[in-house]
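Quick one:
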Amino acid sequence: MTCGVIAEEKKTIYVLTPNPDHGWTGAVGVFAQEKVDQINEEGRYEAALLTSASADEQIAQIEDIVANNPGDGTVGVAMLPQNETVENAIYQLVNAGIPYTAGDRIIASVAPSAVSNIKYDNVEIGAAAASYLVANGMKEGDKCVVLEGDNSSAGTDRSDGFKLYLTGEYAYNGETIAEPWTSLDSVTFSGVLNWSQSNCQQFFETYMSDAANADTKYVAGWDDGYILGVLDALEGSAIDATIKEEFLSNGPFITGCGGAEAVYAIMRGDSTSYTEISPRFGGIMSVTYPPAMIQDAIQAMVDYMDGKEVVQENTQSAQIVTGENASEFPSFS
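Output:
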């Protein structure tokens, strides 16, 4: 008679991200798949990437994971939430005893239940944009337009950081504004643009349809796609030629965030796109926000399953990228 040895069931890590269709989230999907492949090649754990086109689809994926949970601690989730509406589904993970890590879009109400929350300091990103514009001459009363993200922490924190820096309540790189603003009435906030280059283009075309806005010199955007959206608007025919010329003659400044190669190439001076428009800007800046952070969220789950100590609040710092240092930073296509 022989005694068989029952093999321990291999643990599974489900990685949930938005569809890798374009831009920053597209790069997230590429980096996520790269890490999933690495885990599967190592063979200690199984990993699977589940992408979604909407919050409803991601919620359905989470509910399916919960429904099929064996309840023996062999399942974990690393995710980039679609948006705030995924909150209740995450509670289902928690109630089912399934550990999870979150990257980028941190939902405040469920953050304390995460194994780890990996994010960049989005308040700092907004403050960095304000600091850059102020350093390039923006003062209280100057027209400025802020191109906002969505209603997640990534979007709202950046807008808050921008406001707080200007009012002297937040420091960037250890320094506060020399002359705090008492009013933000000269700043126009776009409202939710959902990280969409085309939405940004449409908003900017509408904004510039008013000749009174032609003297706007400062633009802060929470995504590199917004820089491209503004350039698209200026290359197109929707904006009156006289308004467009007045805007460009001011040598406007614009900021973005993310690390898109299309923007870095413009800053480096080796882009073949927007060659008539971009040189007329006084400055173009991007704040680092690497999509590879999803790999940190996945690795945190691996470390947790390995029994290692994992930092719950992993907030990383962003840096300003301009034409002077763009060649020193990695970008994504």
